[in-house]
Every structure is written in structure tokens, then in C-alpha cells.
Write a structure and sequence with these properties.
Shape: globular
Number of domains: 1
Strand content: 15-25%
Order of helices and strands: HEHEHEEHEEH
CATH class: Alpha Beta
Strand order of the largest sheet: 1-2-4-3
CATH architecture: 2-Layer Sandwich
Radius of gyration: 14 Å
CATH topology: Beta Polymerase, domain 2
Structural class: alpha+beta
Number of helices: 5
Largest sheet: 4 strands, mixed
Number of strands: 6
Length: about 140
């Protein structure tokens, strides 16, 4: 059982690191700001070894532009379903869950930046408020 209380396939630190780098590459290609959430975000915030059953990221609904839709069509994503979020697998089969938020949440307004391995990642700030309300975000 994990910190979130979920039981599922847990991936190793190396597998999650690769998936996190692939997320960063895709979001850089899409020119889309994103926030790392879920258990990986929790581990980054607490400066722990990352663990979890996948990588969860948050993007703003307004970030899904025609440019983003056109690029994601090349990855076989259906543009009609992008506004609801989507999930795909990294090259090592780690699930990457892209969640889309529509409201102006305070903790997404002024992100906290965390340096981890070779990247800098944005986390919700204050993270504790995000962590308590993460299941209510839409």
C-alpha cells in the first residue's frame, strides 16, 4: 500500500525517472506548462525517492490549443477527448496521466520549483492544500 492508500503496480525509481523525463520532453515540445502531482509530486516536494503507480501531471484547459491538438494527433490522441485529460504509457510502460483543470486554483497560480535529477519541475504551491484537495480538482 502506498501513501495515497492505493494498491497497484508500483514502479521503481529508475522507471519513474525515465517516465518523468519523457513527460518533460513532451511538454517542452507542446510548449505547455505543467505541474507534477500525485505521489511523484509528493515525493519531489518532500525530497524523497520517487515512488508510485505512474506519473500524474496537471495542465490548464486553456493550454490545449490547436497547436497542441495537432502535435498530439501525431501521437494518436483523439483531439475530442483532450479537454477531459488523457493517459498514455511511457516507453517503459509507466502510465502517465495528464489531468486537465478548468478553475483558477490558488495553488496553481504561483508554482513551487523543485530541482530533481536533470530537470526543474513545477509543483502546486502551497503543496499541502493541493494534497488535501487533489481529488476535488476539475
Amino acid at each position: 500500500m502506498t501513501k495515497t492508500g492505493k494498491i497497484g503496480k508500483q514502479y521503481t525509481e529508475e522507471e519513474l525517472n525515465l517516465a518523468l523525463r519523457e513527460v518533460e520532453d513532451l511538454m517542452d515540445q507542446l510548449l505547455t506548462p505543467y505541474f507534477v502531482g500525485g505521489l511523484v509530486g509528493y515525493c519531489l516536494r518532500k525530497k524523497m525517492i520517487i515512488e508510485g503507480d505512474g506519473v500524474d501531471i496537471w495542465i490548464r484547459d486553456k493550454s490545449i490549443t490547436q497547436y497542441v491538438e495537432d502535435i498530439l494527433k501525431g501521437y494518436n490522441f483523439d483531439p475530442q477527448t483532450l479537454k477531459n485529460g488523457f493517459e498514455y504509457k511511457a516507453s517503459n510502460s509507466v502510465p502517465i496521466r495528464v489531468k486537465v483543470y478548468t478553475r483558477n486554483y490558488y495553488f496553481f497560480k504561483y508554482p513551487d520549483h523543485v530541482v530533481y535529477n536533470f530537470g526543474t519541475y513545477q509543483l502546486p504551491n502551497p503543496f499541502d492544500i493541493y494534497w488535501k484537495t487533489r481529488f476535488l480538482i476539475r
